[in-house]
Design goal:
Layout lengths: L2 H23 L17 H19 L23 H21 L1 H15 L5 H22 L12
Protein name: Membrane protein
Keywords: Membrane, Transmembrane, Transmembrane helix
Pfam families: TctB
């Protein structure tokens, strides 16, 4: 079985467990006045579970690929050095550093640095475009989480 089908099988298992939790366990503790609402707190998880199950079944059954497409080779684990393994490991390390620096460095600095360094590791060298985009995206996400959703995120480093 191809790698994409193995991943789809794993996602299907996770989506089935998530769907079971969304359909059968989340609504048990709702107060009576919320049980007559058209949209419950479990509505989005239910939709997400159904979409994940349908998508993973489409991939698992091979319905997304046209028949005339030539057969592509799977990832050969014996030739891992032929792939961009260094970039993948750098990005994984960068994700860990982002998670560890999120509180001490603040959301704006940590997120901007993550976007900038991640793009640099992937080969982007136009810093005159990259830095403003990283700053804009970091600020926009911070505003949406802080201002719109009302979830507090420290925008600046802890010592400020």
């Amino acid at each position: 079985m191809a790698l994409d089908r193995w991943i789809a099988l794993i996602i299907l298992g996770i989506a089935l467990a998530y769907g079971y939790a969304a359909f059968f366990t989340m609504d048990q503790s709702l107060p009576p006045f919320m049980q007559r609402n058209p949209i419950w707190p479990s509505t989005f998880p239910k939709v997400l579970a159904v979409l994940a199950i349908v998508t993973s079944l489409v991939i698992l059954l091979g319905l997304e690929k046209p028949d005339e497409e030539p057969k592509t080779a799977d990832i050969d684990y014996r030739r891992l050095t032929d792939y961009h393994l260094g970039q993948a490991l750098l990005l994984l390390g960068l994700m860990v550093a982002y998670a560890l620096l999120l509180r001490p460095a603040g959301f704006l600095l940590a997120t901007g640095g993550f976007i900038t360094l991640g793009a640099f590791f992937l080969g982007e060298r136009k810093f005159h475009i990259l830095l403003p985009v990283a700053a804009l995206v970091s600020g926009l996400v911070w505003y949406l989480v802080e201002g719109v959703l009302g979830i507090y995120l420290s925008p600046l480093p802890a010592f400020l």
